[in-house]
Amino acid sequence: LDIEKADKLLEESGWKRGDDGVRSKDGEPLELKMVVRKGSGLESTAGELQRQWQQLGLKVDINVVGEDGAADAFQTVLQPRNFDVLVYELAFNGDMDPYAYWHSSQVGTSGLNFSNYKNSLVDAALSSARGKYDTRGRVSKYVTLARKWLDDAPALGLYQSEYNYTTAKGNHALSKDVQLVQPTSRYANILYWAVREREVYKTP
């Protein structure tokens, strides 16, 4: 975060700091209601965002949801879009199909398009990608999505989780051909794991 540049942009937009350090404009304080799901591993990320934005003069309240269960949090907070900022991790399958998160049909209380993002070109690309069976054809549509997504910025990508797996030299375990969609994917070829190889002679 470029604090100096962000501070300048806020000042130029008319958001002035008050005696309490919180910015306001036309009598309206600059406040954000941030939501993060308990146990998601993103609580510290939400805290860091709060710290940086408070430096800029924003009042940021964090609501950690999910104490009563994921279903309750979805119904009371996520479905009605009861937040200004949602710190959330998107999980994709092996095909990386983002339809559920960015297609306009998923806007509203029944969908997972939490940004309420609508773009007709993105809709067309996502729908077309689902109708293609070859990976190259789908990827070309996802490129269209990515370009429009970057232009419109319905959300900000903070980082991507990384999983590192190590094995002893000489062991035959994780194959380069296995696509690691989730942590358990490393067991996809467990049938072929071995600690050593040798020839076994069998009598007819």
Question: Strands, helices and their partners?
Answer:
Blueprint: H1 3-12, E1 16-17, E2 23-25, E3 28-29, E4 31-37, H2 43-55, E5 59-65, H3 70-78, E6 85-87, H4 99-102, H5 120-130, H6 135-152
Q: What gyration radius follows from the Cα positions, in whole Å?
A: 23 Å
| Residue share in β-strands | 5-15%
Whole-number mean pLDDT:
88
Please count the beta strands (DSSP E, at least 2 residues each): 6
CATH superfamily of the domain at 1-89: Dipeptide-binding Protein, Domain 3
Highest CATH level, the class of the domain at 1-89 = Alpha Beta
Largest sheet properties: 3 strands, antiparallel
| N-to-C SSE string, H for helix and E for strand | HEEEEHEHEHHH
The unreliable regions are none
CATH architecture of the domain at 1-89: Roll
Q: Tell me roughly what share of residues is in helical segments.
A: 25-40%
Kindly report the CATH topology of the domain at 1-89. Answer: Dipeptide-binding Protein, domain 3
Return the structural class. alpha/beta
Shape: elongated
Ends apart, CA distance between termini: 71 Å
Structural features, described:
It is a single chain. With 204 residues, the protein is α/β, with parallel strands linked by helices. The chain has 6 helices and 6 strands. The chain has a domain at 1-89: Roll (Dipeptide-binding Protein, domain 3). It has helices at 3-12, 43-55, 70-78, 99-102, 120-130, 135-152; strands spanning 16-17, 23-25, 28-29, 31-37, 59-65, 85-87. The strands form 2 sheets. The protein has a 3-stranded antiparallel β-sheet with strand order 1-2-3, with no helix packed on it. Helix 2 (43-55) links the parallel strand 4 and strand 5.
